[in-house]
């Protein structure tokens, strides 16, 4: 008799585990449907849409042949943002021997430093000088959403300066480099 009771207790424990496992396997949605000629259940849907950004309106810069004086360039560009109008910008250059991210042009041997300025409006008035690889925070883009699709309205300014003393300090040659801009939504 004790063996039968032990077997029933053991069997009912196993049955209870199977019932709980079976019930757990059917519990996927927030509300499960009932058996019948029709059934309805609810499922919770979650989506996280990240912040998006896009830079457009950039143009290559060709200073041409230098004949004296400092060289400047400025261009109005488009910053597109989705989910916010606030961002930070970081600029890095193609570098020189002492700093791989510095703002410098090179002829393969010599390095010609330049300065980079940025403004979060389409104007050089109020621009801020960028430091290589250091973010400039607190920038705001007007009409940012529409610029995600392409440059519809310029809303920022990028300008550069190669000073005459720097130009006089390097030998005549053709100097090139790359400036990389990174926009991060805030």
Order of helices and strands: HEEEEEEEEEHE
Largest beta-sheet characterization: 5 strands, antiparallel
- The CATH architecture classification is Sandwich
Separate helix tally: 2
How far the N terminus sits from the C terminus, by CA atoms, comes to: 74 Å
Q: Which helices and strands, and how do they pair?
A:
Layout: H1 2-25, E1 52-56, E2 71-82, E3 86-93, E4 104-106, E5 111-113, E6 115-119, E7 128-129, E8 136-140, E9 156-162, H2 164-168, E10 179-185
Antiparallel strand pairs: 1-2, 2-9, 3-8, 3-10, 4-5, 6-7, 6-9
Would you give an account of this structure?
This protein has a single domain (52-185), classed as Immunoglobulin-like, CATH 2.60.40. The protein has helices spanning 2-25, 164-168; strands at residues 52-56, 71-82, 86-93, 104-106, 111-113, 115-119, 128-129, 136-140, 156-162, 179-185. With 186 residues, it is α+β, with helices and mostly antiparallel strands. It is elongated and about 90 Å long.
The gist of it:
With 186 residues, the chain is an alpha+beta fold.
Keywords:
five-stranded antiparallel sheet, 186 residues, alpha+beta, three-stranded antiparallel sheet, 10 strands, Immunoglobulin-like
